Amino acid sequence: MSSPLLFVITGVSGGGKSTLISHIIKKYGFSFSISHTTRKPREGEIDGKDYHFIDENKFKEMIEKEHFIEWAKVYGNLYGTSKGEIKKLFDKGKNIILDLDIQGANNIKKIYPDSIAIFILTKNISVLKERLLKRGEKDLETRIMKIKQTLKEIDNYDYLLINDEIKTSYIKIDSIVEAESMKIKNLDLNKIIDSFWEK
Ligand code: 5GP
Fold first, then answer.
1. So what's the pLDDT on residue 134?
2. Is 104 in the pocket of ligand 1 (CB under 6 A)?
């Protein structure tokens, strides 16, 4: 049996990460791992779809009970991937996609060395600043400082995708999914060979 692909996506805020994640889900049927967070929902976000929105007490209780496979503090809020969520998705046998910060991506890589970690960046800092301002981001300096630090630590990632023109980025991310799906270690070889001899 082949094991499902586990994609971990990290991106600078405003880098177009969500668009690319939606693309992979729609085109390749990946299941999205819904994280828990103490952040308040943004307009349009749905509890149980975008995140499981919980308060800090509940989050701390989950940490104590070791319910998280990984968790991190990002911009003052807590975020975590629950063991239950990952187990549920693995049990379905579907390919999985996680949206994590760099701490989460590094931790997942330790637990699942075969996970595929992709870092998404804009073409340059000007584009990024423009997108952040458009989004109404207030604390621009903190964001940029965090990005500066993060970029020094991306050695553990497998791919760096510069998201300039979205159509080109779709082609780039498709290439990653297609290539990873063809890797021998990711294939159900017995099934493929049986089917080869059938005709
Ligand atoms: P946002 O609040 O903009 O949705 O997410 C803020 C940051 O938290 C993003 O970098 C996102 O990738 C990260 N994040 C979301 N869920 C998780 C999680 O479960 N674990 C970790 N480590 N980071 C997460």
1. 86
2. yes
